[in-house]
Amino acid sequence: MTATQKADLDAIVIGAGFAGIYMLHRLRNELGLAVKVYDSAGGVGGTWYHNRYPGAMSDTESYIYRYSWDKEMLQEWDWDRHYLNQPDILRYLEAVVEKHDLARDIVLNARIDSTVYDEDSGIWTCTTDSGEQITGRYVVTALGLLSAKNFPDIPGRDSFEGTLVHTGAWPEGLTVDGKKVGLIGTGSTGCQIICAAPDTAEHLTVFQRTAQFSVPSGNGPVTPEYVDSKRADYDAIFEQVKSSAVGFGFEESTVPTMSVSADERRRVFQENWDKGNGFRFMFGTFADIVTSEEANNAAADFIRSKIDEIVEDPETARKLKPTELYARRPLCNKDYYETFNRDNVTLVSIKENPIKEITPRGVLTEDGVEHELDLLIFATGFDTVDGQYTRMDLRGRGGLRIQDHWAEAPTSYLGIATTGFPNMFMILGPNGPFSNIPPAIEVQVDMVFDVIKAAEAAGAPVVEITQETEDAWTATCREIASYTLFDRAESWIFGANIPGKRQALMFYMAGLGSFRQKLVEEAEAGFPAFGLKQTAEAVTA
Ligand code: NA7
């Protein structure tokens, strides 16, 4: 492509989930740009299109698991339980697409395999898996945090003669009904399946590697009065969500755990256990659960005491009790530990009794038992945050490969931009906020929109951040993370769930509100980090 050639589109958006849908709406419907969204799936929805496993649901309360910007839909779109199931969320996203006439610019069943920048023309070329090429002046990667699947190659995996499935690619129509089901993985996905599958499966065998802390979700029906009260208060609700640390709709506690008596601690933990929600339990009880080991142990001991109370078989209770810090993504479920009291649920601790191999008939554990199965579910998670990028052929200035740029660690400025990749914007890129996802998406999409709008007003210069800007943001994120306990528990938050993957910081951990404040400061200064202030001054000089 030469400097005189024009791009097919103003912007190419990759991914049609929460982020891509909103980005298309803003860039096309508000700014009038020519935009197309590409997605490998056969429908919109991203995570909520692919994750159709039994029990798939959000663990954010229903009234805020939606866009804040469509105020009509906030008033019109109904909900009847505290949490939304996957089909509800997918239906909602499809309705947004329809209402805003977005489908005509969304290309489905088209996976973008390569995205390459041409320095001479300043244009990006994306190539789909069918070989179609499309060019754009801007690229927005709305790839999702959790979409590249982790599918461990356990010996014998391919010999299994029943159905073997990863939760992130659950086939339409597959059920557990009447089946002998095996489940590998007890992250938030696995725990949801554990709570849902025994209702209709003949038997569920759970292969647990690491025991999990799960608190009650508090799920159940909501009354029309409750729905009305939320609807009447939406402006304040979303302002609070976006100003808070984790963006879950409750006030984070400011009280240090050890500043109160043991009785008071137990009362507070019990109160929040009764209310439900994992993020509320971790961040709404006390201020220092994820920063002080002593506080963390107090919360962990409380949950362990609940496991002893709930689980009838002492040996099962022992296996279910986590021995690590309470410093993974917090989980909540309805009746998680209770489920292990059911006759048709078996727990196998594969830390104590490892999987020897997968056989044609099921799973053989070291103790010589062959667990016969019809359906084997891998709830083994995702190559998170940067995995979606490094699995793509993504090349910036001078052919710089993203794999090389991020060889040591995935880095960015504000989770949005990375140096060497001009006019490319990420939604939920590395070192973005660790918070509830939809509001984080909204603040990042709004930021990208503002940068592109400013760039267009300044004559569409090349928008790029410097290495110094990126390094400073990385240093800020590292310093904040060093005050937390999250890097002391192995999980996807630090990329520690993928064998062989270098462990690295993936998030800005000072909260959504503080993150949003950084965006406001950058915008008010005229986007100097993106080189736009200087450009605007040159244009007006
Ligand atoms: P997670 O949270 O990464 O959980 C994956 C689970 O799979 C976890 O229990 C792992 O055990 C287990 N796992 C991974 N590899 C293996 C192998 N090789 N053998 C046995 N067990 C294994 O993924 P989820 O899908 O549950 O959740 C991801 C996010 O999606 C979630 O936080 C939500 O925000 C949405 P481990 O704990 O590592 O020992």
Describe this protein's structure.
It is a single chain. The chain is α/β, with parallel strands linked by helices and 541 residues long. It has a domain at 9-148 and 383-540: 3-Layer(bba) Sandwich (FAD/NAD(P)-binding domain), CATH 3.50.50. The protein has 18 helices and 22 strands. Helix 1 packs parallel to helix 15 (437-457) and helix 15 packs parallel to helix 17 (512-524). The longest helix is centred in the C-terminal third of the chain and has 21 residues, at 437-457. The protein is globular. Bound molecules: ligand NA7. Ligand NA7 is lined by residues 146, 152, 184-190, 209-210, 329, 350, 379-382, 492, 497.
Chain-wise SSE layout:
Layout: E1 9-14, H1 18-30, E2 35-38, H2 47-50, E3 57-61, H3 71-76, E4 83-85, H4 86-99, E5 106-107, E6 112-118, E7 123-128, E8 133-141, E9 163-166, E10 180-184, H5 188-196, E11 203-208, E12 214-216, H6 224-231, H7 234-243, H8 262-275, H9 278-284, H10 293-310, H11 314-320, E13 331-333, H12 336-339, E14 345-349, E15 355-358, E16 362-365, E17 370-372, E18 375-378, H13 387-390, E19 393-395, H14 402-405, E20 424-426, E21 432-433, H15 437-457, H16 467-482, E22 507-508, H17 512-524, H18 532-540
Parallel strand pairs: 1-2, 1-8, 2-5, 6-19, 8-20, 9-18, 10-11, 10-18, 11-14, 12-13, 21-22
Antiparallel strand pairs: 3-4, 6-7, 7-8, 15-16, 16-17
Ligand NA7 binds next to α5.
